[in-house]
Amino acid sequence: MNRPPPGAGTALLALHYQNDVLHPEGKIRVGLAADSPTRDRLVAAAEALLNRARARAMPIVHVRVAYREDGADIITNAPIFRNVAKIGAVQEGSWGAQFYSSLAPMVDNGREFVVKHSRINAFFGSQLEEILRVLGVSRLLVAGVATHSVVESTVRHAVDMGFEASVAADACSAADPAVHRASLHSMSLIAQILDTEALERSYPLA
């Protein structure tokens, strides 16, 4: 009997791996502090995760957040949005809105897609669901920054939509480690939480 390859039916969601979120000179600090000692470990884990997905031809959807330079498209009903508008973060066309160099999409890979959104949940007002339905996947492997923001919001929405979800814990981060851990614990009720060892068992590097 032919068995499907590891990861068949699964797509990787890589959320907000952008300069303003990850780089030491980035403007957004909800995922990593400017001098965070975890930055190198997070980036290494995210790089390994992307390598796992690419080795198995797993679809990857890179989700970015970006707004107009004048901020006219930023909703200001929540503190996080008001702060983004105030500091001028992730402005379309800016360095800050670009993907972190080592975690950027491979533009010549037909299994990689880029989605832009402008809220917290990556599904809201974006093409994410449409792409996933076209791909025919039923399971999502989710990673990104920040754990308690875009990651948790997206995972909860995905589960309500009927997707099975797993979270690559080591490829996620929050500026406060306690918040990161609490978010993972909260998501464990609805998603599988995978550390590096568990990821290696489920999606070994080729």
Automatic annotation (TrEMBL):
InterPro entries: Isochorismatase-like_dom, Isochorismatase-like_hydrls, Isochorismatase-like_sf. SUPFAM superfamilies: Isochorismatase-like hydrolases. It comes from Pusillimonas noertemannii. GO terms for molecular function: hydrolase activity. It comes from the Bacteria. Residues 10-197 form the Isochorismatase-like domain. CDD domains: cysteine_hydrolases. This is Nicotinamidase-related amidase. Gene3D superfamilies: Isochorismatase-like. The keyword Cell membrane does not apply. Keywords: Hydrolase.
